[in-house]
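Dear Dr. L.,

I hope this message finds you well. Following up on our conversation about the binding site, I have prepared a predicted three-dimensional model of the protein together with manganese (II) ion. For your records, I am including the exact sequence and ligand specification that went into the calculation, followed by the structure tokens. Please feel free to forward this to your student if that is useful.
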Amino acid sequence: MVKEALHGLNVSIIGGGSAYTPGLVEGFIRQKEDIPLSKLVLMDIDEHKLNIVGSFVQMMLNPHLPNCELILTTERERAIYDMDYIICQIRVGGLEGRHIDEYIPIQYGVIGQETTGPGGFSMALRTIPVMVEIGKEIEEKNPSAWLINYTNPTGLVAEAIGKTSKIKHIAICDEPMVLQESLASFLRVSPERLFFDYFGLNHLAWARHVFLQGVDVLPKVRQALEHTSVEEVESLFDEELLKDPKVRTELVNTLRIFKDTGMMPSPYLQYYWFTDEIIEHQMKTGITRAQEVIEMEKQILAGYNQSLQEDKRPQMQRGGKWHADMMVGVIGAIANDTRDLFIVNVPNHGSLPDLPYHKIVEVPALIDASGTHPLAMGKMPLQVKGLIQSVAAYEELTVKAALEESYATALDALTCHPLVPSRRIAKSILDDYIKAHEDSLNYLR
Ligand code: G6P
Ligand code: MN
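The resulting structure of the complex is given below.
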């Protein structure tokens, strides 16, 4: 069989000034034979960040993809027209907006987190209107383009886009890739050899079994971990990444849950299973994750700037191999019509019969030029089914509140969230959000 030669691709990144962009470009460079880039458009409303990241990206492209045209722009339209793939990684309201999302619930003794709990609710309500607008713009100006969305909360955003436009889109998150690649390196096999029996929602998913040549390896891994120190496990991860205390805590807590249950959860499960510990820590430190990330970003951007002057690799990068492997892998599967398997966020369509048919779920799916084809993952185990179903109901109501601009539905949504203790607290948090995010949540007044 003759493999068709793939023409050069036009790819844009909306939110291209993000500190994640260089990691992503590195992924395109690694895959340049299979996914040749002819044009890369970086679009961002923050011109300062766009210029620093853009110049750094140009330096990365020069030796490896000298014929790839790089365009930096603040106009969204230029990142839509003529593109084959539009990658979106925006943060509506910036990290300052995230700080408000995370800070307010802590005042009520509730978890303050970007995508989980009230923080994710506020982020969804602020982000969905903008992403719906982007979806409609793609539908109108370039309906054949693919939107590959990394904008959080990715599952809720996908649900809203699916309800308001007919564009081709896939929502992704790097966590499944982190799990697949780390487990593969622990077992010293290539990740393609492992099959993940994996189910759930974005940031609330589980690997129930992991098969290698027909045998579930999770019991063996669980046993091996009894004799493996945390340090040995850590040696599988990027040293740079583990300097970040969030990543370290996630790893330790995920392993705690795995040792306990024999199933491997998403790292964000810690917010549901160790709620008391985490909230105690958050109330004690009084610092939000947003504040930590603001500091990290400053250092990373300064590092990009410095390496531009010294013409060498920066010390720190944000996001990295996994983020790029997922994004570039999915684009490659569509562009080359490979029907490869990726764990992505797609309409359920019966994959998980315990969840509604149209709900966006995180499951393994075959990906090719015609789109995503989720595999049947079957019924969920009783110990985790209830939590997933109640978060699914909260998500559905949140999307409905954003699309119908309804305060009452927003209040119902937050009340439903398992991390919110009462309707009274839900109302206080919601009202505080509307007040603090004057511009972006005005539509709920
Ligand atoms: C993980 C999550 C992403 C999130 C990222 C950064 O990779 O899957 O959705 O954006 O962490 O989180 P941070 O708290 O460092 O901004
Ligand atoms: Mn994610």
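In brief: Residues 217 and 266 are 18 Å apart (CA to CA).

With kind regards,
A. P.
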